[in-house]
Structure of Delta(3)-Delta(2)-enoyl-CoA isomerase:
Amino acid sequence: DFFVLTLTGDSDEHRLSPAAIADVLSSLREAKSQATRGSVLITTSQGRFFSNGLDLGWARSAGSRSEAAERLNHMVDSFRPIVAELIYLPMPTVAVVQGHAAAAGFVLALCHDYVLMRSDRGVLYMSEVDLGIPLPDYFTVLFRAKIGSVSARRDALLRGTKIRGADAARLGIVDGVKGSEEELKDAGILLAEQLAARKWDGEIYKVIRQSLYPELCGVLGLGVSKPVLSKL
């Protein structure tokens, strides 16, 4: 019942280029089309990074500042449907963050229902304030929806704090930390097995998730589905 989405590539930064964004989106839609009761999505990666965010190198290679800005805006717009798919996916989702998750990589992790992280390696980092790049509206709304602590959001978004595993767990950003890659992998599988064993109706699960984040659904241009109470 598991769908395992693993970010791979020649560079272990797993930058979200237009091609990578398209591949991730296609994979999520494939998982959605095959979902059954008890399905669970696990997202992870290989190497030192979970994802180092949008491919700024590709944007900067455009040749001029205006063209670079156009490329960056294109990636921001292209990444939005990934966030939407994860909010609409009819199954529980688990991000197993075994390395650094920066900018859109942090956002990608935060889109999942559960986030697990290593305590010995990797940070969560929103680099936009350091790079001088404004935040897309749906990034900001996602942080408000997913991180309850005002000071944690402030430090992440306005201070560019690099948050390690233990602090992320203390702040309620992640659901657990493990001391090694193997322990983290095992914890992710165990959590997925526990979720899959409940055999929930994926469409109902999706509707309940949507109802938790109405502002985010609105910014993403998604209507909140109305549940069909067919089993009463």
